[in-house]
Amino acid sequence: MKKIIAISGSFRINSYNAATLKYIIEKYKENINIKHLDISTIPMFCEDLEYNIPSEVKKAIEEISECEGIIISTPEYNQTIPPVLKNLLDWLSRQDGLLNEKSVAIISASPSFIGGARAQVELKKLCFVLGMKIFNKKQLYISNASNKFDDKNNLIDKETKDSIKKFIDEYLKSI
Residue 91 is part of a domain; what is its CATH number? Predict the structure, then answer.
């Protein structure tokens, strides 16, 4: 059974990106070993801490080292990725070879019309620099997300569910 780590670039309580990953985890839990990696407690990267790595970072490193793939769902902040996501990747990038050739699928969900497309571009550039294997066969932008989730942040839009299924199925084949 493939082991996948799911990372949300937002830990806001009503995050559409976290809700998207929650939907994916629930839908695929019988077919793959998929786990959400909470990045909310990871301290800001500082070279002074690099040789005395905080326990939260050690846990993330361990989870990433054991997985076959990573699914990142990210919001767009000022046309780029959120600082918490960049911070995680900065920590992980300091571990020799940890991210090299690690398969990554990128999703974005946003209340905007373009669905976080600019954040995906920026994240793909960063993942490329880090040596990750970027899944590019399909794209998944969830635009107008406020209309696709209910008031409890459950995905209710059938077309979006279908798009997620196609995207994840293709991603899993690529690993």
Answer: 3.40.50.360
Determine the Cα–Cα distance for residues 8 and 36; give it in Å rounded to an integer: 8
Q: CA–CA distance from 173 to each of 50, 56, 105, 168 (Å)?
A: 36, 31, 12, 9
Distance in angstroms between the alpha carbons of the first and the last residue of the chain: 12
Beta-carbon count within 10 A of 148 CB: 21
Question: pLDDT tens digits for 1-31?
Answer: 899 999 999 989 899 999 999 999 999 999 9
Cα three-residue angle 136-80-141, rounded to 5 degrees:
45
Residue type, 65: S
CA distance 144 to 141: 10
Q: Which of the 8 DSSP states describes residue 43?
A: P
Give the total number of structural domains in the chain: 1
